[in-house]
Amino acid sequence: MNLHIKNGLVVDTVAATTQATDLFIVDGKIAGTGSAPEGFKAEQTIDAVDCWIMPGLIDCQARLRDPGEPEKANIESETEAAIKNGITSLCIPPDTQPPIDNSATVELIHHRNEVFGHQARIYPIGALTRGLGGEQLSNMASLRDNGCIAFSNAKHRLANNLVQRRAMEYASGQQSLVIIQPLDHDLLGNGCAHEGAIATRLGLPAIPEAAETAALAKDIELVAQTGARTHFGQLSCARSVDMIRRAKAKGLPITADCAIHQLFLTDHDIGNFDSNMLTIPPLRSQYDRDALREGVADGTIDCLCSDHQPHEVDAKLKPFPSAEAGISGLDTLLPLALRLVEEGVLPLAELIARLTVNPATILGLPGGRIEVGEVADLIIVDKESHWTCNASNFISKGKNTAFAGWDFHGCVTHTLVDGNIVYQA
Amino acid sequence: MPSSNIQLDDNGKLRHFLSIEGLNREILNEILDTAESFTSVADRTIKKVPILRGKTVANLFFEASTRTRSTFELAEQRLSADILSLNVDTSATVKGESLLDTLQNLEAMQIDMFVIRHQDSGSAYFFAQHVRPGVSVLNAGDGQHEHPTQAMLDMYTIRHYKQDFSSLRVAIVGDILHSRVARSQIHALNLLNTGEVRVIAPRTLLPVDTESLGVSVYEDLEKGLDGVDVIIMLRLQKERMRGALLPSEKEYFRKFGLSQERLRLAKPDAIVMHPGPANRGVEIESSVMDGAQSVILQQVSFGISVRMAVMSMIVGQSGLQSGADA
Lengths: 425, 326
Prior knowledge:
Chain A is of the alpha/beta class.
């Protein structure tokens, strides 16, 4: 289909500019910007006046709970939430049930997305070890051939440093990216809140910063040892930002992301034991939050993700330490990103780059940029509309938001995947 | 900041009793005064008043307890309540019933008041947020968060022996990190305007930023005991040796055990308290525990009056002036 999007403000995530430009789409690809390609005849025209046109967001960490936990969510519900919220690509960590450690599970996920999905792209991240057990390497080469874009042990423990070293070497030998969420399980213990005055007062078992930073220091050393290209996910501490910054300055092949909620919430938000504020890593101090924002601004943190973890109501309907961790994040990813722009963290195009071209480049995915020849995964965002966050309006099956009552602006009016309009408000 | 308003009704009266934090000095004093009016009940031949007549109180203990549970039960009986006591760890939740289901099933039996002990910090708030209007929750210890009735009986004991809080130095010694009793005591002592609150413990048993609770921190028992009026010893759980928190009971006693000799560092008329159960020879020497300055057994008997006071305030009665006859 030939599509003409006119009068919109195009967010160029590569040149870091936002300017009024028309877009022309032919056969699922961007065929022209500014002026129509020769012989272009529009079959459909969208008037995007007062709207931004951006690449579809690429969420580098979102759990869809499929296969395995249908009470929480599934591919059908979560891909619908994604496309209605401007997310066209979802990278899913391997801790499904069963884990993504064999080709059959990868195929099952792709099959379900074809049959039930709402046309968002799903990219499985393979398990680094069999069953995520931390002992034996998974069949990474086969998994990669079947479409795993990277390898990770998610939040599961690796047996020891030797296993980690070997896993990183093997993945690296397959030209695969390793994704690590730095976590020392002994220091994590049964902790459920940031170690600080709030946890002290509430008597909540605490998670020290070293649960992340001690692991990260070791992980960075293993990157230096193995040369394995490594992405660090969901950082939460000021000291982690500093360590990544220094490791990058040394030229190590390292990238990093953080969950977008970490840029807004702190341990103060736990309030009266609000289990919607229970996350791992935990919501940390204002100091950490500010340092993460700085890291996003100066490029130390390359990407932002939703760290989407939808839950059924009962999972959160428990006393704080017994509730399940995680925030349902697909419905709030774009509005929070726009809020970071409003709050002056970064100009729009640079901020959106952390949700588009940066993850695309790191993970080797299509999309993420608006250029002639690139796939037409695009979203149109009405920049004037205002709304108040209310979990009952969430498209995601998980209503466990930490942002109920927040005022947002910016609303997705169209989502295109491969040039097809898969959602229209 | 947790707003603890859920504990109070629109008129500022007690509705639930969940944590000392969030209450005010007036309520704490009212509890102490009300408790005082109940101590005479214990001396009567018939130790009953009808304040909770026709009300049903459920004691829900998800964690073992001897002292707290039995004094709650006695307090309920002396207030003429109907009582249902459950050790929940051995009943429904083992069969997979959710906490809320357990609570709601009991509510269906027209329970008016729940006394709950649970291993999760914040569980008392959780229950209070989910009971029906008109049903009250009393926290009998939630994880490492608070144990407010224990703190109030400790305040009662201190007031009984020392009267004015503002001139007092109080030392709390031992495992602050895991202690819900310590957290409640610290809030209560500060609300009652205590001159100085000290905590004394090895660093592994102190939570980070302990000072932010409004205390001065000592890692040396002898310095910390210097000139104090009240010494509150906390129980040291033996499990702590396993988690690499402490080297041995012997070394703990050597550095942090309360001996006769160390007791002499405190004021000559200092009182020694312990919420129990105590480990003789670990945190406290037997001769101190049984000595003249020990008020440990008095604490237990005051516990009944204080719990009677809290329960009667929740049903809207302060003391014996109304419904005094049995």
